[in-house]
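Figure 2 data, in text form.
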Amino acid sequence: MISKIKCLVSISLTFIVSAQAADNEGAPIVDYKPNCITKTFAPHYLNVEVLDYSDLGAIEDSPAFVLALQQLRQDATALGAEVMLLTNVENIKITKEKNRTGRRAGPKVVRTTDLKIHIAAQAYKLCNGDKSYSNDRASYTTKGFALQSTQYSYTVSHSSIITAKEPAMLAQETTLPPANVSFSTGVYGINLGVSTTQTAQKLGPPSIILTLDNNDKVWGYGRNLWFTYSADKLKSVSSTFSILNGAGKNNIGFRDGFDDKRWRIEDKIAQKNSIEQVRNSLSKHDITELPEQIIITQKQQRIILQFDKFHPTTKDDPVTLLTNFTYTSKIDESARPSLPQLTSIQEHWLYKHLQPNNVKSLTLLNLMKQIPQANKINIANDHKQWWLVGNNVLLQFHGTALGQAHVSEPFFTGYNNDAFFQSVKLLKLPLNKKGMLEHYTDANDNYDEIDVSREDFNLIAKFESEENDAAVYDLVFTYY
C-alpha cells in the first residue's frame, strides 16, 4: 500500500525528523542483499509531495527526503520486515510560474518549486541463524543516492558508430576546430564526402539524429548546424533546417562551440556581416547574386549565403545581413526534406502503451521493433537523451524501461496542429480542464495546470488558461 505525505519544508521539519528517529528508527536500509531470507515482502512504494521546496543542496540530503526514508523504514517494520533495500528513487522538481497583480506593484511573475519523491523498496525477514549479507549490491545507497559507476557503457548503431551513453559529457570533452566554412577545409573541418564516423571523431556526438523519408541521415550539432548524409557520405551542411519549428529546436540542448559561435566564410566574412561587406570580401571569387542570396562556386562545390533584412530602428533604413549558409556539391538538387510518418497501426500501438496500465510493455527494444523510424535527441535541453516519436511525442528511458513521456504540440513545420488533440483522444483523455478534473477526481488544481499522483505514475497537464473550458496543450507522464 502506498503512503502519501504532503508537507511544507520548514525549519521545524528538521526537529520532526530528529524526534522520530529517536523514537523509532524502523527497519534499517542496507547496501547488500541478505544471504538467508525467510520471507520476501511485496515491493513497497512511497510517494512524497513537498510544496514550496527551496533546499539548494542534494535532494537526498534534504530534511524532506530524510523524513521520507524514515517513514519507509517505519512502514517496513510495521509489516514485520527486518531490513530493506532501495530499488528505485525518483526525485522530480516542478517549477511553476504564476502572474500575480498587486494594487501598487502591478503585475509580476511568482515562481514556486514543488518536489515529488517516489521511492520503491524491497523488504526482507532474515533467518534466525544467519544475518550475513551477500556481495549482491543494491542499486541505491542507504541514503538514497544512485550508485555511480566509473565504467563507460557503449552501444553500436547499424552504421557501426560507437557512441557513449552520456553524449553531453563526451561533447564537453571534445576540442572543436574553428567555426569556419571553406572550400578547402569544409565546415568545422568536415569536408563533403566524409562518413558519420569521421564527423563524430572530430566534433563529438551529434545533438540529434534524424532519419528522412529517403533514408538520408541528418545530424544536428546544437540548434543551428545540420549535416546531411546519403549512404553514409556527407552531402551538405547548413546553418538552417526547415522542417524543425521553434518548439522542436528548443528541445535540443544549447551547445557550447556551436550555438555561441558566429561562423565565418573562408575566414573573411562573419555571420551578421552586411551584404556590402560580403560583396567586397568575395570580389575575387566566382559568385552569382540573387535576391537576398549570394552563391559562391568552386569546381564541384558551392556555398550558398542567405541574407535577411533588419530594421535597427523604426527611423533607419533596413540593413541586409548574412544570416545562414549552405555548403553542398554543385550537382546536389535535393528536394525539401521530410520525415516518415507513423502508420495508423504504429500510432495506436504507441498511445495504447503510453497509458499507465500498459506502459510496462513499452520498452526501448519494443519501441525499436514497432517504430524503427523513431528519432533520437542525444543532448536535449535537460542534457539527457530522449527519443522523438512521430510529430509530437518525446520518450525518455531509464535503461530499457520507459521513465517519462512528453506529449505536446508538433515539433515540425508543415504538420496539422490538431495532431496534439488527436494524441489526447488516443490516450483516452479529455480535451479541457473541466473534463480532466472530472476524469481524475483526486487531481491537484494548480490554476492553469493539474497534477495527478498515483502509485505507478504522475501526470502534469497544462491548459491555455485557468478557466474550466481551457484546452489542454501539454502532457507530461512520469512512470514508476
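Caption note: The first helix runs from residue 11 to 23.
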